[in-house]
Amino acid sequence: MSEEAAATNGRRESTVADVASEAGVSKATAARALGDYGAVSDAVRDRVVAAADRLGYRPNALARTMSTGRSNTIGIVVGDIENMFFAKATRGAADVANDAGFDLILSNSDEDGAVEAKAIGVQLAKRVDGLLVAAASSIESANLRPVIDSGRPLVLFDRAVPELGVDTVIAANRSGARDLTRLLVEAGHRRIAFVSTLAHPTAFQRSELLYSSPVAERVEGFTDALAAAGVSRPEAFVHLNARAEGVEVLARRLLTGSDAVTAVVASDSLVALGVFRAARELGLQIPRELSLVAFDNADWTQVATPGITVMAQPIHEIGAEAARLLIRRIRGSKEPATTLVLDQHLIVRESVAAPSRDR
Amino acid sequence: MSEEAAATNGRRESTVADVASEAGVSKATAARALGDYGAVSDAVRDRVVAAADRLGYRPNALARTMSTGRSNTIGIVVGDIENMFFAKATRGAADVANDAGFDLILSNSDEDGAVEAKAIGVQLAKRVDGLLVAAASSIESANLRPVIDSGRPLVLFDRAVPELGVDTVIAANRSGARDLTRLLVEAGHRRIAFVSTLAHPTAFQRSELLYSSPVAERVEGFTDALAAAGVSRPEAFVHLNARAEGVEVLARRLLTGSDAVTAVVASDSLVALGVFRAARELGLQIPRELSLVAFDNADWTQVATPGITVMAQPIHEIGAEAARLLIRRIRGSKEPATTLVLDQHLIVRESVAAPSRDR
DNA sequence: GTGAAAGCGCTAACAG
DNA sequence: CTGTTAGCGCTTTCAC
Predict the structure, then answer these.
(1) Closest nucleotide (CA of A28 to C1')?
(2) Nucleotides of D under 7 A from a protein CB
(3) Are residues B177 and B310 in the same domain?
């Protein structure tokens, strides 16, 4: 290796040993001065530091990790960093992590179990001190087992995996969905669709387990609110797997015909965007002919005409709290696992009105 | 360490040595079988592999890096992962990196030189094989020097730093800005503001060096187009530092009074959003009373009413190409540094019209 | 095809 | 306060 590396890297990077001999002290002393641990006399420290930057010394964090067992790195695996939700949560986590002296290794799972498993394997191999994951599945925990087995702390965010019993940070999705739906019900709607892109090949059945806990909770909140309004078979209004058909295509289907819905609860802002577009294409006026509410206060929901009423989630905080919990564990906390449920809050805009008579 | 780690991690993770003795072979042989290098007989390999998963062996990537000098990790430092531009570029980079077997360490610089310097230091300490950076400054290269000195490949994206002479991937911002501005000019506008949040304490002067090369190029394209239209002192229409005052506040100022502009070129979609909001608050109709164009095809520009005409950038590709270039270097390419300039493309929507007579 | 031993750069006892 | 000596877990000559 040394040859190739030398060819690639120009000269070999200087090490503690180099600095030590340059400063005329032992390796241990140099290491102590450089690593800022143990005790070194000021004179020697200065000499070592001087030698160090004369040589352009840069510590090798990996070597340090090898001997200390701590990498000061945490891994985060998200569905897709391009998704505004994950971008914000990641930022929240990164900020907390950095403040505590940790770096972040990022992986995208694409919500795919196999990809997720591989990502987790890599992170573990890199000996991260702990892992933050938005699990691809809430009901299948096999992917996460290796991190438990490794003994490294794991904190889940956005998605809960109950059977694992680990620290988790989620939003109050059930009550959020209930409130959002109730808003529509109170406006007089009864034919309301809930739309999510969660992969789900078959029609949704009552009290079925869903792969994504936030979607599951939202579905519950939604059906609860409908049931409370006296709607029979509310589960028939739940439409999952929207990605397969295409959100806009599905939306067009839901919004037309004799049994068209008069309102839609979008499980996230991307779904809402598809519905919004479909409505526009169909020439349906929001809110006069269609009421629309969604989760997440995305940019576009604020400037669209009309503004979209949304249930905003404290996304930054979800990431930040998850990181805080993780770091506490890394520092050795032995408290029982907790689940933090953060409140969502309603932002009322102009996308809800009474259902129109002529539909 | 061993005690504490043992306490934290449950049992110690098994190592090549453990697997070796479990399989009854030497450490070297076990390592060869596990690491898939050198030559091992099939029989032995099977025995080793069996032993390995009996023990739940997981390779220690750090130890491997220590001896091989390669970490299979690349670092990426962006301004802010929450910014859609960086999120997309990061995703593009992550995808090609993963395909090539590399992982990503992510840092946010917040466009702050000091933060950036620290982030780069950390990445270097972690011995990334190469670095992808959207430099906080295009004219001050000190932060990047350490990576050059380290001998590790560096690829810049979005922001060029000419004096460094390293591989760079950028978009054709100058022509993009020219085309966008020309659109306004051709519609009859002469009083057009260019607005950016680029930190810049003083009023913009002609041919001044700017910290951000994309903004610099856009400003050039903008002033060129104005000059070509016979506008004198086009630089007077360049408004930087919009964050300090607040985009909306600045926009309100630009849009009112006797010398109000009739059109705005927004340097990014966040700026455009601020202008859009300001216009709405002022009750100005777009495009009748104000024409607005912007860079980046953000979600909201598609669903806002009216749709915003934008210059779309191939953001994924910027990240992906940067990663490709970097990986080629990591693999040892010695070609002269190249600068890849990717085309932008215009998406015409409804936010441009002739200036209204009554303003 | 397999094994023994050295070494990557650092930290951590343990002496002095 | 400083130096010596072992490792951390892996790869890599070099013999056999």
Answers:
(1) D3
(2) 1-13
(3) yes
Residue A303 contacts B where some CB pair is shorter than 8 Å: yes
Q: What is the mean pLDDT of each run of 10 residues along chain B (359 residues)?
A: 35 86 92 88 92 93 94 96 97 97 95 96 96 96 95 97 96 98 97 96 90 96 97 96 94 94 97 96 96 97 94 98 97 95 98 85
What are the pLDDT digits (tens) for A164-200?
999 999 999 999 999 999 999 999 999 999 999 999 9
Do both B56 and B127 map to the same domain? no
**CA distances (Å), B120 to each of B97, B105, B130, B152, in order?**
19, 11, 11, 12
Nearest to B94 among A62, A63, A108 (CB): A108
Is residue B140 domain-resident? yes
> Same domain, yes or no, for B137 and B209?
no
Which structural domain, as residue segments, surrounds residue B64?
A: 7-68
Cβ contact B146:B121 at 8 Å: yes
The pLDDT-based confidence of A38 (bands split at 50, 70, 90) is: confident
pLDDT tens across B94-125, in order?
A: 999 999 999 999 999 999 999 999 999 999 99
Structure tokens belonging to residue B56: 């739940």
**How far off is chain B from A117, nearest CA to CA, in Å?**
13
Distances (CA, A) of A34 to A17, B120, B122: 11, 19, 15
Q: Is residue B204 part of a domain?
A: yes
**Beta-carbon separation of A124 and B149 below 8 A:** no
CB contact under 8 Å between A127 and B61, yes or no, is yes
Domains held by chain B: number = 3
B79, two tokens: 């301004």
CB contacts, 8 Å: B106 with chain A: 90, 94, 104-106
Tell me: do A305 and A199 sit in the same domain: yes
Asked if B304 lies within 8 A of A299 by C-beta distance, the reply is: no
Any CB–CB contact under 8 A between A58 and chain B?
yes
Asked whether the beta carbons of residue A108 and residue B125 sit closer than 8 angstroms, the reply is no
B294 and B182 in one domain? Answer: yes
User: Within an 8 Å CB–CB cutoff, is residue A71 touching chain B?
Assistant: yes
Q: What is the domain-level CATH number for residue A183?
A: 3.40.50.2300
B100, B36: one domain: no
Distance between the alpha carbon (CA) of B123 and the C1' atom of C10, Å: 17
In a domain, A342, yes or no: no
Q: Give the tens place of pLDDT for each residue, B71-101.
A: 999 999 999 999 999 999 999 999 999 999 9
Reported as a single tens digit per residue, the pLDDT across B139-167 is: 999 999 999 999 999 999 999 999 999 99
Let me know: does B76 contact B90? Beta carbons within 8 Å.
Answer: yes
Q: Does the structure show a pLDDT above 70 at A10?
A: no
Nearest to A242 by CA among A287, A273, A263, A280: A273
Do A127 and A49 fall within a single domain?
Answer: no
B350 within domain boundaries: no
Q: Does the bond joining B287 to the residue before it have cis omega, within 30 degrees of 0? A: yes
Nearest to B125 among A56, A59, A300 (CB): A59
What pTM does this model have? 0.93
**Who's near A270: CB < 8 A, 6+ residues apart?**
A83, A197, A247
Chain A 232-291, CB below 8 Å of chain B: which residues?
273, 276-277, 280
| Residue B182 near residue B189 (C-beta atoms within 8 A) | no
Q: How confident is the model at residue A284 (pLDDT cuts 50, 70, 90)?
A: very high
A328 shares contact with chain B (CB less than 8 Å): no
